[in-house]
Amino acid sequence: EAERFKKDQQATTSRPEYQDLDIENPNLDGVPLSKIAHLGEQGIVVTRVFRHDEVEMAHPETVLHLGDVVRVVGPREKLETLHLLFGQPTQKDLKEMPSNLRTRRVVVTRKRVSGMTTQEIRHMYNTVVSRVARPDVEFTPSPFLRIQYGDQLTVVGEDADLDRLAKDLGNSLEQLNYPEILPIFIGIALGVLLGSVPINIPGSTAPVKLGLAGGPLLVAIALSAKGTIAGLSWHLPKSSNLILREIGIVLFLAAVGLNAGDEFVATLLQGDGLKWFGLGVLITVAPLLGVGLVARWYWKLNYMSLCGLLAGSMTDPPALAFANSITTSNAPSIAYATVYPFVMILRILCAQLLVQFFL
Q1: Contacts for 314-322 with beta carbons within 8 Å, 24 or more apart?
Q2: CA-to-CA distance for 331 and 245, rounded, in angstroms?
Q3: Which candidate, 138, 175, 174, 168, places its Cα nearest to that of 153?
Q4: Which helix (H) or strand (E) holds 132?
Q5: In this structure, are residues 18 and 90 in contact, taking their beta carbons and an 8 Å threshold?
Q6: How many beta carbons lie within 10 A of that of residue 244, not counting itself?
Q7: φ, ψ for residue 22 (rounded to 5)?
Q8: How far apart are CA 20 and CA 246, in angstroms?
Q9: How many CB atoms lie within 10 A of CB 325?
Q10: pLDDT tens digits for the chain (359 residues)?
Q11: Beta strands 45-51 and 101-107: pairing type?
Q12: Gap between the Cα atoms of 44 and 18, Å rounded
């Protein structure tokens, strides 16, 4: 089990890797990169090609030949499948070979370029975006990925092209460290308004509402997906994000303790307190064990993603914090963020419906 845990940590790391592969497949001789299906869709980016003792930048129209060496960037499991298509890894290191190509990290801090695709960046600046880093996640982009304010791009190109790209994208870390307060309060206000809108459900004696939790949650998801609206950026710097998240967890736990602590022992030991406590344990543990066993043994879900899934299904931030503390992988956070909004909305609506239908 310890060995499986270690493999899960390695398998769920979202950081892309690179390999230099020999072109050994005769079927690829004379084939342009654009004709090799699904490379971009699978998160594979080809950045460099070595031929005739020179390193060139890879373009969709670049024609492959036997004996070429290509640098590919992508998830580890995807790179391993390319060995069957391209060829085996070579001992050459294309980045260390003399060439005019450089690799640079460029930060998107100019709002007007938000929404530009990596394909447009390739055509306009003659560069290749090999990686995109967003808070807690780093991945290889597809040609049609739209960059967002705050993205950190790993770009391959010549110095002049990289300088021009960095100037147009902003590339100011200082600007990125200052959060815009106005969009935060606008988002909260819109969320409160949405949460107060009554929702009529057939068969219900009274309308239900998303409340102060569900309304801001949906508005935040919608605004962050849009990125920039009317010149306002809905990006929250990672440092501010971490501070708000940690303070939120602490305040949440403190509020729960203050509300329940004064009568907890008396309620537990008197009347049906132990009965309710046992039922609470049952309805908490049983679904967790059921989902965990099915996801682990039937769906083969890795351990890190499973931790995030269970934490999100219980809307349990402390459980997510514990999962993140035992791994460097982003898998728990990704799984948590995937299921948390849906579960939170269901909790809000179902609680109100249960009261109306059974009381």
Answers
A1: 314/284, 314/288, 314/343, 315/340, 315/343, 315/344, 315/347, 317/245, 317/248, 317/249, 317/252, 318/249, 318/253, 321/249
A2: 18
A3: 138
A4: strand 128-134
A5: no
A6: 13
A7: -75, 140
A8: 41
A9: 8
A10: 455 544 544 444 457 889 999 999 999 999 999 888 678 777 899 999 999 889 999 999 999 999 999 999 988 878 888 888 899 999 889 988 889 999 999 999 888 888 899 999 999 999 999 999 886 678 899 888 889 888 899 999 999 999 999 999 999 877 777 777 788 889 889 999 999 999 887 777 778 888 888 899 889 888 887 777 777 777 776 667 777 777 877 887 788 788 877 777 887 888 788 888 899 899 889 988 999 999 999 988 888 889 999 999 988 877 888 888 888 777 888 888 889 888 888 888 887 787 777 76
A11: unpaired
A12: 10
Of the candidates 201, 58, 196, 31, the one whose C-alpha atom is nearest the C-alpha of residue 128 is 58
**Distance between alpha carbon 198 and the CA centroid of its chain, in Å?**
32
3-state helix, strand, coil in the chain (%, to 5): 55, 15, 30
Phi and psi, residue 343, nearest 5°: -65, -40
| 88: number of Cβ within 10 Å | 10
How far are the Cα atoms of 169, 244, 342 from residue 189, in angstroms, in the given order?
A: 31, 18, 21
Structure tokens of 210? 């998303």
With tokens 């070579």, the residue in question is 90
Closest CA to 69 of 84, 58, 81: 58
Phi/psi of residue 298, nearest 5 degrees: -95, -50
CB-side neighbour CA atoms (13 Å) of 23: 23
Residue located via tokens 């960059």: 147
* Cα–Cα distance for residue pair 32/194, rounded to 1 Å: 51
Q: Contact 62/36 with Cβ under 8 angstroms?
A: no
